[in-house]
Amino acid sequence: MSSHKLGDSIFTIPALRLVLEHTGSTIVTIITFEENREIYSRLFPGVNFIIISRNDFFYHGKVLKLSLWRKYFSLPAEYFFDFSGGLYSAGITILSPAKKKIGINLPLYSKVYDNYIPIRQTPHIMDIYLDIVRGYFGDFPPDSLKQFPLRISSINSVLIAPGGGWKAKEWGINRFIQTAKLLKKRFEIHFVFQADYLTEEFKKALFEESLSFTETADIAQLIQCIEKYDLFLSNDTGPLYIANFLGKSTFAVYGPTNPDFHMPYGSGHGFAVKRIACSPVTEKFCHELGGRSCFHHSCMSELTVDEVYLRLSEFIDSFNVPRDLNR
Fold it and tell me: Phi, psi (5° rounding) for residue 245?
């Protein structure tokens, strides 16, 4: 079971791959959200899916509706791996008739599992899910398994996605437009937005600067757009990690989240961040609930266009130096 948002669904892939290799299962079913099916099916083409919806839950998304419990309880399985953690996944795990139940969760739900793995509080997020492999199979996967191979040799085009998982993680569309004006002197530039994200005001601003954009209705359209460009520039958001999965170079603007936990592995990825007094150091998010309860958002507002452009330019110039991609 992997009921995550887009970004975390990418983070589960190395562990899922190892689980499938170790179990040798011929029939595999992943319980997940519809938006994740497009990602998982690309890597695991023979896998079956049970698609759940956020409307299937109540109590702030923590408890599965009783009418749906039987649907999951009836699944025959040798193994049940819980990659989600939380009250609802513990409930589904309890009802699963699987012979072996392995998963991460809070200590409160440890008795639910035959093999319980605590949720780690240290980087990287991928290791949260790889701990399942370590805890059950006893293997210690090398860091190389956390990397998705780069499929580009140089950066000549940039796709910019100003959206974020929540507003506090957004650097701001106007700052991205100003950055794009500087970048387009050297690179092909294009913007991508989720449908209904753009206001008429911002559309006008993009037209005035002769900056093209695409509005996507689903993950498949987003993937098609990402595949056309070399580098993906955005906030800390799910599409950034899809671009990483697709073999693109990435550059992220971080604020209330900690790049040590989230940044893609490998040399083809960079970031800019403004460290302030309340920036997370050893935690995934700042103490203001990842900026959700913050009243100033200084980590984003104090990060200037010039600073991001300088860091990004240095990163691209370094990347474009001829090198052996297999190293």
Answer: -60, -35
- Which H or E run includes 176? helix 173-183
Range of the domain at 221: 157-319
Claim to verify: residue 69 and residue 186 sit in the same structural domain: no
CATH of residue 244's domain is: 3.40.50.2000
Contact 37, 49 (CB under 8 A): yes
Give the CA radius of gyration of the chain: 21
pLDDT tens per residue, range 218-227:
999 999 999 9
Q: Which residue has the tokens 């759940």?
A: 52
Residues 6 or more apart whose Cβ sits within 8 Å of residue 21: none
What total of structural domains would you count in the chain?
Answer: 2
Which residues contact residue 112 at a Cβ distance below 8 angstroms, ignoring those fewer than 6 apart? 90, 93, 94, 101, 103, 105
pLDDT score, position 285: 84
Mean model confidence pLDDT for the chain: 89
Burial 152-185 (b: 16+ CB within 10 A, else e): beebeebbbbbbbbeebbbbbbebbbbbbebbee
Closest by CA to 133, choosing from 14, 2, 42, is 14
How many residues would you count in the chain?
A: 327
CB 92, CB 1: distance < 8 Å: yes
Rounded distance between C-alpha atoms, residue 55 and residue 53, angstroms: 5
List CB contacts of 191: < 8 A, sequence separation 6 or more. 159, 160, 161, 162, 176, 180, 206, 211, 212, 213, 214
pTM of the model: 0.90
Tell me if 34 sits within 8 A of 52, measured CB to CB: no
Q: Does residue 115 sit within a domain? A: yes
Q: Tens of pLDDT along 180-219? A: 999 999 999 999 999 988 899 999 999 999 999 999 999 9
User: Among 14-18, 32-36, 323-327, which stretch is predicted with the lowest mean pLDDT?
Assistant: 323-327
